[in-house]
Amino acid sequence: MATTPIPSDFKIGFIGAGKMAECIARGVVNSGVLPASRIRTAHLGDHRRKAFESFGVTVFDHSEQVVEDSDVVLFAVKPQIVKDVVLQLRPQLQKKLLVSVAAGTKLKDLQEWAGHSRFIRVMPNTPAAVGEAASVISLGGAATEEDGALIARLFGAIGKVWRSDEKLFDAITALSGSGPAYIFLAIEALADGGVAAGLPRDLALGLASQTVLGAASMVINTGKHPGQLKDDVASPGGTTIAGIHELEKGGFRAVLMNAVVSAAKRGGELSQS
To answer: Can you tell me which residues bind NADP(+) (predicted)?
Structure first.
């Protein structure tokens, strides 16, 4: 999908000019996938206008102008207001490819509000801010494979992209959407452990952060199962296996599994409300 060419006159418009929209737009521009001159959004606030204008994005006063001047319309607004925003713009949306990153908002509802089903739902996560997002896309009824490939390429500019059936989105949200928070807690706890063992705070936090980054890179780049990589570090009678023993006594793996399952359950409850 990532090799799909983007038409030379293609333009994308962001409805919503918050941090996620900015992360996506910056990633698309920085990667060379699309020049800033073909990206637009709308906002009346000076701070957000300047944030987008600083890297060349056209900023209008009204969302209707964004829709009119775009081929793809990407809704990056809060879930609580996405319905009102889509309904307000509905008359102008009929021939557009539509995309939503609103968490917990289902395609069937988005399509109903828009009046057509050429819609794609995307679940990115906060590491989009540093170009390391994990994004999952699901296609609506009238969205074509070409549409999906185009959106996958755009989101590939801010990280890695997977395709999935929308029925898995609650679990996806629980793992990759909420997952960064679990890892932030783990980094904080590792750093606290380092401090408890006598390290200065800044050294402990730096070591913990880089260790997590390095470990994740090894899983991705070596192709080895995490269990095998763990075994490679844990020598007989050594320090690592002593630490792992403590983690197992505390139910470390079960707690992480339960966190994902609990978050998925809550996501299902929220999407039904």
So the answer is: 15-20, 76-79
- pLDDT score of 51 more than 60: yes
Q: Per residue in 11-37, pLDDT tens? A: 999 999 999 999 999 999 988 889 999
| pLDDT band, residue 273 (cuts 50/70/90) | low
Q: Is 15 annotated as a binding residue?
A: yes
> Are 45 and 136 part of one and the same domain?
yes
> Is 18 flagged in the annotation as binding?
yes
To the question of whether residue 79 is assigned a binding role by annotation, the answer is yes
Tens of pLDDT along 246-272? 999 999 999 999 999 999 999 888 877
Does residue 20 have a known ligand-binding role?
yes
Whether 146 is in a domain gets the answer yes
Q: How many domains does the chain have?
A: 2
**Is 19 part of any known ligand binding site?**
yes
Is 151 found in the same domain as 53?
yes
Q: Would the annotation count 106 as a binding residue?
A: no
Q: Is 124 annotated as a binding residue?
A: no
pLDDT over threshold 60, residue 111: yes
Task: State pTM to two decimals.
Answer: 0.89
Domain residues for 117?
12-169
